[in-house]
Amino acid sequence: MHTPSSPAGAAGCPIDHQALSPPRSPTGCPVSQQAAQFDPFDDAYQQDPPEYLRWARQQEPVFYSPKLGYWVVSRYDDIKAVFRDNITFSPSIALEKITPTGDEANAVLASYNYAMNRTLVNEDEPAHMARRRVLMEPFTPEALKHHEPLVRRLAREYVDRFIDDGRADLVDQMLWEVPLTIALHFLGVPEEDMDLLRKYSIAHTVNTWGRPRPEEQVAVAHAVGNFWQLAGQILEKMRRDPSGPGWMKYGIRMQADYPDVVTDSYLHSMMMAGIVAAHETTANATANAVKLLLQHPGAWHELCQDPSLIPNAVEECLRHNGSVAAWRRLATKAARIGEVDIPAGAKLLIVMSSANHDERHFTDADMVDIRRDNASDHLTFGYGAHQCMGKNLARMELQIFLEELTKRLPHMRLAEQRFSYVPNTSFRGPEHLWVEWDPQANPERQDPALLQATSPVRIGETSHHVLGRTVRVESVTMVAQDIARLRLAALDGRAMPRWTPGSHIDIECGAPELSRQYSLCGDPADGNALEIAVLRDPESRGGSRWVHANVRPGDLLTIRGPRNHFRFDESAGKVIFIAGGIGITPILVMARRARELGMDYVLHYAGRSRATMAFVNELAALHGKRLHLYCKDEGARLDLPALLDVPQPNTQVYACGPVRMLEALQQACARWPEDALRIEHFHASTSALDPAKEHAFEVELKDSGLTLTVAPEQTLLTALRAANIDVQSDCCEGLCGSCEVRVLSGAVDHRDVVLTRAEREANNKMMACCSRAVGGRIVLEL
Ligand code: FES
């Protein structure tokens, strides 16, 4: 804790105390000028919360806001840590009125017997997890599947209503009513007066997260009171016959078995909160997504061309412009967030929309990148035990709405307008979204059959496999015997994605299921094209033969990536590069980079003969004496045991080449320090799961408060997804590292090729797609 006399730069506080005058935080710390001005009801916050908090992420990531009386948290890691510890940071104030209302409004609420109490979002442990476990089943991806036909039908019908008009307010004419209808269907609530429920929902938002003026407070209180009573009436009606589908009916049925867990007070509060939560956030999220994409026509156009990009685009829209901007927590004891001490009893505003633009976690965070490979790391749904249970229903709706709109209105554009938002801290979406188009150009007028086309919805699955990109083959050049260099450019002449030494791309070799990885061998600074070199290998599994036989200049190819599983550590003291045959491709780029940086390095390159070794002249010209060539037909042999006999301090070995060479290298480096050897793998060393040889194990998810069983025929990744836990994946073969999860206890049977020996021995992470528990139980930080 700080005192006013703490010197500038004292541990725990970045503020120069002498330079500032009051106001002060509850810890006595002076409040900076920007912190003093922070006001989440400002139009600037409403229009763009992450931009409004850019200064905080950069300079003062945790600060006290005197205007709000809250501590504001703005960075990704800090907010995730707050979500992770829901004992220190209690959710109990999540539904408290952020602006206390006056006596008159309070009296109005009391006249309706308004008694909003604990729901799932503001319940402390242990009650919360007990309830969440009992009520979670209808939210699993499996259970959600049967809602898909209704979502598709409604999306279709609502677009039918305005498709010939040439102009629509998507919020008023589709994006409120469709999610509301789906929400009522999901809850099992009969379709009530939609306009009334919309009015009530907005009143609930303003009452809880807004700052209504004194003259508005009474009207808001009446609407909220009426909503409370209506929720009670619907509940009573349901109680008379709780059979049939719907989550609220499921809850009523569960009450019979768990009366202490699913209480009357909970059911009434949840009926009201659930109606809002289940549709308002989705309605806002879709409006935000459509607005964002139409403001980035390149991205919109790509989705119109290739709907398989929609699932990841949804994640990117939720990250960049999500509908849940901030959430609240109460510090139950003194705690430290980042570098700042927070007193017991402090109220926190954790701004997830700011975290989602944190450069420390998302590269080029302000850019809209529909292929971003960690887009689904966003915190819009929260994280851990309180993560939004309805996230996969929302994902399904968003995907289907975007599919319908991109398919039927690819020529849609934003109309001239100023966007307005309901002023509040947390729920954010434009009140209106006017779009226009030329109905004469509606594609279905020419091709009615396009209405039948649908794309698969991906719920509970964040896989990179879907992120294809079409490129044009600019040139094909033979650079050695049987080695072709391909230069690949964007179709529209735009810049290609950025990449770093060690990156690779996947190429679809004639069919989506025949995908092969090739290291990039061009210049990372060349934004116009990506280059790979492909060896025609008679032993190949079909990919390289296909490339050599079929790919010609001007052809179109589908690629994925670039991604990097073979990163080059530019801080290494010395580097030994070792390449065998076509393995020179990633090594070539790394060695060039080492030279640029003036690093101490040496490059050993082995092959059958000069004629079969690509880039020899280029390498010789660039690296001079640092290059050592070993051409087998000239009698030169790369003697790995001799080369690596004596471990060298502060030296890293980077290698790529045939499996036999890499195995010999691992043996030769056995006495080297841990992690000195870095190898590029393109083939998994483990085979497919054989249930007869596996055993089931339990996995406890510490952050989520769940315990799952991974059956012998299941991977850990599959079990996690079935329980609604988001984990990224890419290769699903233990090659890429994207499914890494943190291990808290329990021995791991590592089956990947990503982790080093030291990392395996540390036993604090594992690859969920392939690795398993040695014994009967592991505990994960998830
Ligand atoms: Fe690639 Fe698991 S998904 S290692």
Defining key terms:
782 residues, alpha+beta, Cytochrome p450, Elongation Factor Tu (Ef-tu), domain 3, Rossmann fold, six-stranded antiparallel beta sheet, five-stranded mixed beta sheet, 18% strand, globular, disordered N terminus, binds FE2/S2 (inorganic) cluster
Q: How does this model look, in words?
A:
Helix 13 packs across helix 15. The strands form eight sheets. A six-stranded antiparallel sheet has the order 15-14-17-12-13-16, covered by helices on one side. A five-stranded mixed sheet has the order 1-2-8-5-3. It folds into four domains: 350 residues, Cytochrome p450 (Orthogonal Bundle); 95 residues, Translation factors (Elongation Factor Tu (Ef-tu), domain 3, Beta Barrel); 106 residues, Nucleotide-binding domain of ferredoxin-NADP reductase (FNR) module (Rossmann fold, 3-Layer(aba) Sandwich), CATH 3.40.50.80; 90 residues, Roll (Ubiquitin-like (UB roll)), CATH 3.10.20.30. Helix content is 35%, strand content 18%. The site of FE2/S2 (inorganic) cluster has 14 residues, from loops.
Question: Strands, helices and their partners?
Answer:
Elements: H1 33-37, H2 43-47, H3 49-52, H4 54-59, E1 62-65, E2 70-73, H5 76-84, E3 89-90, H6 103-111, H7 127-135, H8 141-144, H9 148-162, E4 167-169, H10 170-175, H11 177-187, H12 194-209, H13 214-240, H14 247-257, H15 264-295, H16 297-305, H17 310-321, E5 327-331, E6 335-337, E7 340-342, E8 347-350, H18 352-355, H19 391-408, E9 413-414, E10 434-436, H20 443-446, E11 462-463, E12 469-480, E13 483-490, E14 503-508, E15 515-519, E16 529-535, H21 543-550, E17 556-564, E18 574-580, H22 584-596, E19 600-607, H23 616-623, E20 627-631, H24 640-643, E21 651-656, H25 659-668, E22 677-679, E23 697-701, E24 706-710, H26 716-722, E25 728-729, E26 740-745, E27 748-749, H27 757-762, E28 765-767, E29 772-773, E30 777-780
Parallel strand pairs: 2-8, 11-25, 18-19, 18-21, 19-20, 21-22, 23-30
Antiparallel strand pairs: 1-2, 3-5, 4-10, 5-8, 6-7, 9-10, 12-13, 12-17, 13-16, 14-15, 14-17, 23-24, 26-28, 26-30, 27-29
Helix pairs in contact: 6-13, 9-19, 11-15, 12-13, 13-15, 14-15, 15-17, 15-19, 17-19
